[in-house]
Design goal:
The complex is a heterodimer of chains A (about 110) and B (about 110).
Chain A lengths: L3 E3 L3 E4 L5 E7 L5 E8 L3 E8 L6 E2 L6 E7 L2 E6 L8 E8 L8 E2 L3 E5 L1
Parallel strand pairs in A: 2-11
Antiparallel strand pairs in A: 1-3, 3-8, 4-5, 4-9, 5-6, 7-8, 9-10, 9-11
Chain B lengths: L3 E3 L2 E5 L4 E6 L6 E7 L6 E7 L5 E2 L3 E6 L4 E6 L8 E8 L9 E2 L3 E6 L1
The chains are: A mainly beta (about 110), B mainly beta (about 110).
């Protein structure tokens, strides 16, 4: 089974801190994604990457950046955390191509105080 | 723009049928369906592609109406295990490199 592992299940950070959320997948997937999930809003795409060192903005990239130095690892960075970034963050990966579903990690619940 | 899912929530008795709809204002290339149980990650159910066939099996299936830019998920003779939040994710180009845009979800509660 493909596994997508997010490093932390729960995280509490202070306003203004730089925050790193890590995601690792073990099945050689080209595509990786970061979503945030908020009640009543569904999943919203922050950033995605289809190759090492490549990154594309999603629908809500403001306040975030990403890094993909290795194929299996995709990091989400909150440059200066704010309370409105309190959310559940989900990482996903998939193979390139039309017929593949996403495999999601278990999520990181980030609280910014 | 997010696809619109309907209904927002539905409560059924075990054994009843459910239909969840997903509508897009943009021309669709693909539609994914996922189920998420409380506190867990979303789990992939199926994908439908433009020009493709209806997917699924006897109990859970889906259709894709290209003219209306809609997809529907059919849950037949629902089981308790079907409870959860269902999301559609829409893709607007081929190749799979772009991220999906997800709807806000449909909460499905199956009661004994």
């Amino acid at each position: 089974d493909v596994k997508v592992t997010q490093s932390s299940r729960y995280l509490v950070k202070r306003t203004g801190e730089k925050v790193f959320l890590e995601c690792v997948q073990d099945m050689d997937h080209e595509n990786m994604f970061w979503y945030r999930q908020d009640p009543g809003l569904g999943l919203r795409l922050i950033y995605f990457s289809y190759d090492v060192k490549m990154k594309e903005k999603g629908d809500i990239p403001e306040g975030y950046s990403v890094s993909r130095e290795k194929k299996e690892r995709f990091s989400l960075i909150l440059e200066s955390a704010s309370t409105n970034q309190t959310s559940m963050y989900l990482c996903a990966s998939t193979l390139l191509g039309d017929n593949y579903g996403y495999t999601f990690g278990s999520g990181t619940r980030l609280t910014v105080v | 723009q997010q696809p619109v899912q309907s209904p927002q929530a539905v409560i059924l008795r075990e054994g009843e049928d459910a239909v969840i709809n997903c509508s897009s204002s943009k021309a669709l290339y693909s539609v994914h369906w996922y189920r998420q149980k409380h506190g867990e990650a979303p789990v992939f159910l199926m994908i439908l592609l433009k020009g493709g066939e209806q997917k699924g099996h006897e109990k859970i299936s889906a259709s894709f109406n290209e003219k209306k830019q809609q997809s529907s998920l059919y849950l037949t003779a629902s089981q308790l295990s079907y409870s959860g939040t269902y999301f559609c994710g829409t893709g607007y180009s081929g190749g799979g490199a772009d991220g999906l845009t997800f709807g806000k979800g449909t909460h499905l509660i199956i009661q004994p």
